[in-house]
Write a structure and sequence with these properties.
659 residues; histidine kinase; EC 2.7.13.3; HisK_dim/P_dom; single chain; alpha+beta; Beta-Lactamase; GAF-like_dom_sf; 5-stranded parallel sheet; 6-stranded antiparallel sheet; 4 domains; Rossmann fold
Length: 659
Amino acid sequence: MPSSLEFALGITLVPPASPARELLAAAAARAGLRVVDGVEGAALALVDLTSPDSGPALRTLLDSPRASHITLVALVEPTEQGFSAAEPLRPADVLTIPVSPHELVFRLHRAAGRHLEREGQERGQEDLALLLELTADYAETSDVEALLHGVTRRLAEKLDIARATLVMLGRNADEGVIVAASDDPTLKDLRIELSRYPEIREVMRTGRPVVMEEAPTHPLLGDVERRAVAARGIHAIAALPLPIRGQVRGVLLLRAAGRRRTFTSREIDFLTTVAHATAVALRNASVLQSVRGQTEAEKTARLAAEEQAASFKPYQLFFAHVSEGVAILDDKASVLSLNPSGAAMLDLPAPEARGRHLHQVTQPVDDGVLMELVTAASRGEARSGVDVEVRTATGRRLTLSMSAAPLRDEDAATILSFRDVTDARRLEDELRQTKDFLERLIDSSVDAIIAADLKGRIILFNKGAEALVGYTAQEAMAGVTVEQLYPQGVARRIMSTLRGPEHGGKGRMSLTREELVNRAGERVPVNMTASLVYEGGREVFSVGIFTDMRDRMKLERKLSDAETRLEESEKSAVIVALAGTAAHELNQPLTSVMGYAELLKRKLKEEDFAWKPVDIIYREAERMAEIVRKIGKITRYETKAYMGEQQILDLDKATSHED
């Protein structure tokens, strides 16, 4: 069985001298495991409780510091005592002897999968715990420098890597500043040339994480960088972006050396989350300070915002009567003014919004979308119709359609307008779901369903229609008209019928038999119904439902042929019965006539006057006897022309197959 495990896990046998050792060696290799001696390097243990020496070896295993990290598989006797002995161990699986090699491979493979799953959950819990600690530190620590060093130090310890560094980008693209490093708490404000760090430049260019496995040979590095990396014993490098207001403003740089050979995808996901959290903390440092209380700096900022808002008074008077929400922002995305409609939408009094960051006022579900909108406006780009999910001050969740544009370049101010589209988006989703359901329903119909506008252009062509006439839906809607699907003149006749009251009422046509013309030019018989669709009393389009009648008509023809054959068979049966009866009834009198005629001939001489008439009677009786014989042999109904259009039974053909 091929292994699907990410790494080759170690498995040990308890006790080591168990008779199951040879069986385990073969099964472990097939399960993608490696057999190890002792608990060091073991992720799983096969405990043979049937072995007499299992007790001491099991106690040694359970007393080991690694016991809680080892997954147990127990081998027991198939008895009540055997299962009772395994119960206190709480093994991941239990096998009974004798165990087949195939079962052992399967059970070991499954136990290894459970072990990896448990390890993943434990690591996920550790990641979450560290992330919660970092988040708490971001919220409570005022010493940013100590905070950043603490972040890098804890990341290096958790991942067992050589170094974690936070690099902020300088004013130009060639300069960076190291603000914190895991191995040196005093290292800060160290300027570096980014030309020596291709991984940082790549993150700046793409805005995505860069992971270099086998760093000493990675093509992204130049010859000089490769030699430097190899000299330091670095095996892998990971660089994660710190996005601030839509731009990469820093990089979290990690280097793996020593026992650490690479970074797993789970670790990269975790580091990406940490990098984003760090970026948000750096971006909102002033906002976090304002949440803790009213400081002098905060009061000064609020007064400055109020003074600046006064300059927008003419706009405020105008926006006060606008039904949409309107906010005026400064160059830091803080609210200078919020109109009454916007305040009502956000459940926040306008005076309380003034001076607060837009993120605090709207509490967006995805702050990246909102900040990208505002950042674009600050660059002079107008954006409109961007949906942003927000939480109001009272906890309501709304979908706002936002538009942003620069207001006055000299003040770097932005005007943000928004309207509540929550119900509209919900209705759109419901309509979209209904539309998808109806489309699936129409496509799953065996019958052909075709709709066309009043000019004959096809607007709906389901799978049944494709099968019936041979066009694909794309071909039909691209260039085929309804008139091409009918014989000449039929499409106009059907439209005329739909507009009349005779066949199901105006706008409707009841079931009728028609013909369609398929792609090959063949006529296909169908049963169809049709109707006109109206909007406000005006014809919009027509729709027809067509049932392929070819198979049914073949069946009808077969039934008709069978009925004809049955009728002929019944006729033949009557003729045969009648012929048999007639032959039986005529044979006796004919025999008497022939007998008496023969007696008369014997008594008369040829020269007698009566001999010739008696001879004629005898010969005609013989001919009648031959006819009666043929009648008795009739087995089928065959006729021939007699006089004019009259038909009589053809005795020769009706009895010829007997000859």
